[in-house]
Amino acid sequence: MKKTGFRLTVMIALTLSLVLIMSAAAFAAPTTKNIKIITPKNKTVYYVGEKVSYKARCDNPNEFGGDILVWLKKNSNKKTVWGPKIDDYSFADYQTPGTYVNGKFSTKKMAAGNCTFYVKMDLYSRYDEEAEIEGHPYPVTRYKETASAVIVLKKLKAPAKLKVKAGKRKVTIRYKKATGAKKYEIFRSTKKKKGYKKIATTKKTKYVDKKKLRKKKKYYYKVRSVRTGKGKVKSAFSGRKRSGKVK
Questions:
Q1: CB of 96 within 8 A of CB of 63?
Q2: Smallest Cα–Cα separation from 225: which of 188, 194, 179, 192?
Q3: Integer angstrom CA distances of residue 184 from 32, 51, 55, 80, 162
Q4: What gap in Å lies between CA 79 and CA 229, rounded to an integer?
Q5: What digits encode the pLDDT tens for the residues 193-212?
Q6: Domain residues for 207?
Q7: What is the pTM of this model?
Q8: Which CA distances in Å does 208 have to 166, 174, 199?
Q9: Does 196 share its domain with 237?
Q10: Could you count the other beta carbons within 10 Å of the beta carbon of residue 43?
């Protein structure tokens, strides 16, 4: 009895694991029988604020027309993030060669996390010859097919561990590299909470400030990360740091 119970438990566990694996695979399938999502690639990382370019090929499996719908949903709660759909396209009757859908959408108003990009074909598969509207057969049966790709959205963070050190007519600024950042913008002020002006943009995590510094004066600094390429994205500012007196 004990051996039988153990075998049954193992079989149930293996079955559940297989179901979960199959469900996960079905959840994000960029290529189906008649749809191929070319971009975005599955699990591509974007940063909130960037623009996502999409392109997909759809082949009409029958001789009737219909629609291709493109939309985006959050994985966590299944609620639509970017309205009911991003865009839609129409298949004309007898249009069997591949049709490409392409465009862009912004992630500026979206939150970090995983989203799923969907391309769905909603086509007529046959007409009812008996039911006619204005002399045309009425479509009654629909063919539906959906492909999807996961988009990973991250929030660009400010560089951490900002340090400033005053020297002889200079202030040295150091900070940790921020994941995803292409460059950094450095701001300076003589006051803690206001009056900050950008003094430099750099790709490095160290900068030496020598711009119009006054002896025996203390300066405040803050830094933010910047990302370019798919639209300009800027992080929040790091915490403010005050230098010692410039020598």
A1: yes
A2: 179
A3: 42, 20, 32, 34, 12
A4: 29
A5: 999 999 999 999 999 999 99
A6: 163-242
A7: 0.76
A8: 10, 9, 11
A9: yes
A10: 12
